[in-house]
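Exercise 7. Given the encoded structure of a 286-residue chain, write a plausible sequence.
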């Protein structure tokens, strides 16, 4: 029996959220109680923990987007038992679940530490992502863009399906309901040209998804977000398939933090339009 075989991998419950928060905090990640509850609400049978003697030592979450592709995230293991195969076992449990649901392609955002493992499992690189941060949000003026309305939310959900590559309206609606203060949409000639969703994190506010058809529209959304959060730290994850994204965040005063790689396993027949994505929803969400 290997070390990982000594653990019971089972479906996550609300009672396990406290351990999910503990593990993500140990890893220095940004998730809160609300984030973990969102996973369980959106994919209640697709979140798993590894437990031994009644204590949770590892987690993995999944999200299925129209069965076109599924997302794997929150692969976390207690620091003292890492490199003993438990993370791989949890990852494979998430993969097996998504396949059992008929999901065609599996996706994830890999850290440099995990990139080699995912390559060995057959994942392929899709594009690069960069985490940027600002320690104290500041903007030149006062907030100008109204909070996202119910009508704008529906417009954003329709446009987002083409840009993301699959319907994730349930996720976007949950972000809007939980964090209305951190949502905005911009229009030109009566047509939606950009939208952004944000949420409060354990270490910083997070901006994403942040989508726009042009750099000026993206800049207006970013300035609005910073104006509302003046003085607070902010994280965002820039999609490098968008040739303007890095310049927009640099000019706003953000500093580079780390690299990620978006990867896929399967045909990837619905890649969306990442060239319009300035900031992803999050490595754990897609």
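Solution.
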């Amino acid at each position: 029996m290997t070390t990982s075989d000594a653990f019971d991998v089972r479906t996550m419950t609300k009672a396990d959220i406290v351990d999910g928060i503990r593990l993500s905090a140990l890893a220095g990640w940004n998730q809160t109680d609300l984030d973990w509850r969102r996973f369980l609400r959106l994919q209640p049978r697709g979140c798993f923990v590894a437990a031994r003697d009644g204590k949770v030592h590892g987690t993995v979450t999944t999200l299925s987007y129209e069965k076109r592709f599924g997302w794997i995230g929150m692969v976390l293991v207690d620091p003292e038992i890492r490199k003993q195969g438990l993370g791989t076992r949890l990852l494979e449990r998430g993969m097996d679940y998504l396949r059992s649901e008929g999901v065609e392609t599996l996706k994830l955002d890999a850290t440099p530490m995990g990139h080699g493992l995912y390559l060995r499992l057959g994942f392929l690189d899709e594009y690069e992502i960069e985490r940027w941060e600002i320690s104290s949000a500041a903007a030149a003026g006062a907030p100008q863009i109204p909070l996202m309305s119910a009508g704008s939310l529906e417009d954003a959900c329709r446009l987002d399906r083409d840009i993301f590559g699959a319907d994730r309206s349930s996720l976007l609606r949950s972000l809007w309901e939980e964090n209305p203060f951190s949502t905005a949409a911009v229009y030109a000639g009566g047509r939606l040209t950009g939208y952004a969703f944000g949420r409060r994190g354990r270490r910083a506010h997070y901006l994403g998804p942040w989508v726009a058809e042009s750099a000026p529209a993206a800049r207006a959304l970013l300035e609005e977000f910073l104006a509302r959060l003046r003085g607070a730290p902010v994280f965002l994850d820039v999609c490098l398939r968008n040739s303007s994204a890095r310049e927009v965040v640099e000019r706003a005063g953000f500093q580079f933090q780390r690299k990620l790689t978006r990867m896929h396993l399967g045909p990837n027949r619905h890649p969306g339009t990442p060239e319009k994505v300035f900031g992803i929803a999050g490595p754990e969400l897609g």
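Remark. The chain has two domains: 3-103, 131-279. Students should compare their own answers with the one above.
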